[in-house]
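Box 3.1 A note on notation
Throughout this textbook, protein chains are presented in two layers. The first layer is the amino acid sequence; the second is a token string describing backbone geometry. Keep the layers aligned when reading.
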Amino acid sequence: MIDLRSDTFTKPSPEMLEAMRHAQVGDDVFGEDSTVNLLESMTAKMFGMEAALFCPSGTMTNQIAIKCHTNPGEEIICDKMSHVYIYEGGGIAFNSGCQVKAIEGSRGKIKAEQIIENINPIDIHRPTTTLVSIENTANRGGGSCYDLEDLIEIKNACIKHQLPLHLDGARLWNAIVYKKHTPIQFGEIFDSISVCLSKGLGAPVGSLLLGKTTFIQKARRIRKVMGGGMRQAGYLAAAGIYAIENNIERLSDDHKHAKMVGIALQKKDFISNILPIETNMIIFEVSGKYTASSFADYLKGHQILCIPISANQIRMVTHLDVTGDMVDKILHCIDLA
């Protein structure tokens, strides 16, 4: 089966499993797991940030960050398609008691001037705006990436209005490779960053939250309250270390494969629109003889899995378990459709 539903479906490679098997572990809740400590310190150093916190999921790192930055009754600015807003189970309201001002961006990306326009004035009738959160790459934008210049403008707007800036970087590694940016550049812009290890990098579990030492100390306490304190987590951290050391540059292969699939889809008369393909996501609309569901069923009949995300939209995601031979099969099945 060729699984294009998400890059979360990757399996650890034999080399990654071997690294996990040999991990030195302790009790991370006591701060005594040396492999977790190494993963946190090396990732923080990569981004030029002071500290990091290893968590089970990107949802948890995002939700911890939001709770650290805000107080109940306040408001967060983000794009209306942001993962923190639509795919984290209402966590902003449940965990932080905050509401969201959701902006109509462009393929999941917002501009500095939009943020400025949506900061609430001082008014007892309105919640206080206290945080800006952006997503890079933007999932519902088809894996779209911010230009560094736009991020710097957003940062300057946040500084001017004394707002912390959080980055949901679940697929930040993809953006870094595609745009040829460096982790340090992101560390210089954001007050907190969430990065996932269990998507394009192929680790089985885990995300990291990055920030200042005092911020991460607070985040560590919130992680415990949320039930995210893990014990001998070094086995998982070892997979993350292997992923960072071995699987970042190869993300360009996933981007190449996604573009190949996109080119094949563009040739079909039942494809009405494809979002620009920058990284490892293909989001497209079908019409005519197919609905999203029926085209997904057609592909499933050929052992290819994808996700209908609306009545006429489908998402495909390439990753390290999708080989060149598999891409050839996908192209062949699209050609026959």
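The first helix runs from residue 14 to 21. The longest strand covers residues 129-135.
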